Amino acid sequence: MRYMILIYNDPTILDNMTQAEQEADFQSYMAFNQVAAEKNVMRNALPLHPASTATTLRVRDGKSNTFDGPFAETKEILGGVYVLDCKDLDEALELAALIPAAHHSSVEIRPILEIPGVEQSQ
Amino acid sequence: MTINDIHSHITEIFQEESRIIIAALLSTLCDIELAEDALQDALVDALQNWSKNGIPNNPAAWIMTTARRKVIDRLRRAGTRQKYSPELQALQKFEEQSNTSEETSIDEIPDERLKLIFTCCHPALAFDAQISLTLQVVIGLSAEIIAKTFLIPGATMAQRLVRTKRKIRDAGIPYAIPSTDKLPERINAVLSVIYFIFNAGYTTPIGNELMQADLCEEAIRLARTLYQLLENHADDTAHAETLGLLSLMILHHARHTSRLESNGNMLLMEQQNRALWNRDAIAEGIALLDKALLFRKRGVYQIQAAIVALHSEATNIETTDWKQIALLYRALMEFIPSPVIELNRIVAIAMFEGFETGLELLNQLENQDKLEQYHLFHATCADFLRRLNRTNEAKSAYIKAIELCENQVERQFLERRLIEVSSVSE
Predict the structure, then answer these.
(1) 3 state SS of B267
(2) Measured between CB atoms, does B81 come within 8 Å of chain A?
(3) Whose CA, among A84, B43, B234, B312, lies 20 to 30 Å from B378?
């Protein structure tokens, strides 16, 4: 089963990290990538630029409206996603627990909806 | 063989063995809704087939085999996505290999209920959802009855159950016994669900007496089953705590008939007629606790069972071992540092050190946490003051307790006490 792991960072925590903490955070991500690769479950890793670079679009009656910033103003910001192919939710949870954001912010685990006949990247 | 005989036979199988059949179906399926639908189809078939051909030697196995075929039918009829599903392939393979399965007895159907319990109590489900699903799928209560327990409309409950089953299917919540390192945590989740079900029965308001006793008995039965199923799977702590919970519930339940007067008024332990306590059940509860303690793994359920055991063994309130009870509450505080437990510890201390001491300890507690909003804090103050003949202070404490109390039976009790103290002048 494929799961998307959505990483929700608390920006105030990230901003207040010391250089050493940032480095440790990065190393932890590398370690997670390593484990996921060894278990052959990693299908995709897509880190995102900060929410300040986001643009939100709404098209109504053929008219496009663009807004600066992310769709929802929340305390925690989507920082990136992974796609993991796991046996079941327990395996996905066990791996997600290795992601640094799970320790200082939150990660959300969502099963990917597989639609038959629709080409989906693996 | 009349149609009525067949019908009652089917009903019997449905009640006794359908839980095992559902659990067995799920080992190749991971879709509770589908398993339940297939079982329903199979029961309808049984009614038609058996009235023509008679009841088979092993009705449960007949239903199991038929239900499995019904799953295949349903999957084949469904869209292309299901047609190629690994579940269908596994089921078809199973079907090809087993040709004598109708002769299997229910005892030979592997009992997979432990997996079912762990799936229903998975921490990825909301606690309310875990409880509702366990009541329906593991215990076999109808959505309508479960709705009454939660005091919500039947349709809302039905929706919650469907949503929960779909989450299990779509999110890939496993149908398995958790790995050894996760087991203690997962057993705790299961035990909390069982204890919640027991308490729901224990504190159900009057007028629902039938349901009250039923839920308590179902929770006890489930804990018994869990203990049997855990054999060879769990570690010592899990065994000890499962036995501890079983003992705790049996000991509470042994006294349940004496908790209320015939008019529904609540009685405190010191007012209860101890002759009504079920001595056999108390003996069983204590034996189970002794067995649990042999594992030498302390836990919250064993400590609570030990407290109730001390109450159950005492012939009256004066000969109760309050010192030991106070120590047990202190041990419980190490696991659950809650002001409510501290409150209970103070009551125990007051019973052997005197109510002046008790009141002093309560005053030290007063500013802690949300205790000020907790009706039992004020009820305890009121009780100590009443026993010390400080009636005016007792009165205002009872009034505060009554204001905060949400349980009708308890409130009526407090109101009676308020009238009592009001009639005494200082």
Answers:
(1) coil
(2) yes
(3) B312
What gap in Å lies between CA B215 and CA B209, rounded to an integer? 10
- Nearest-CB residue to B174 (from A90, A111, A116): A90
Residue B345 has a pLDDT of 95
pLDDT tier at A52 (50, 70, 90 boundaries)? confident
Residues of B in contact with A1 (CB under 8 A): 172
Mean pLDDT by 10 residues, chain B (426 residues): 73 75 86 91 90 86 89 80 64 63 62 90 94 91 84 92 94 90 89 92 58 78 90 84 97 86 76 89 97 95 97 90 96 90 93 94 76 87 94 94 86 91 74
Helix or strand or coil: residue B121? coil
Q: Determine whether the interchain pair A3/B172 forms a contact, defined as Cβ–Cβ distance below 8 Å.
A: yes
Here the tokens at position B82 are: 């299901």
CA separation for the pair B78, B55 (Å, rounded):
31
Instruction: Give chain B's length.
Output: 426
Distance, in Å, from the CA atom of B80 to the CA atom of B228, rounded to the nearest integer, reads: 41
**Contact flag B124-A89 (C-beta cutoff 8 Å):** yes
Residues of A in contact with B124 (CB under 8 A): 89, 93
CA atoms of B218 and B145, how far apart (whole Å): 13
User: What letter would DSSP give residue B138?
Assistant: I
Contacts of B187 (CB under 8 A, 6+ apart): B230, B234, B238, B241, B242
Which residues of chain B lie closer than 8 angstroms to A93, CB-CB? 124
pTM, whole model, 2 decimals? 0.83
**pLDDT of B206:** 45
> What secondary structure, in 3-state letters, does chain A show?
CEEEEEEEECHHHHHCCCHHHHHHHHHHHHHHHHHHHHCCCEEEEEECCCHHHCEEEEEECCEEEEEECCCCCCCCEEEEEEEEECCCHHHHHHHHCCCHHHHHCEEEEEECCCCCCCCCCC
Interface check for B182 against chain A (CB to CB < 8 A): the answer is yes
Are B250 and B301 contacting, i.e. CB atoms less than 8 angstroms apart? no
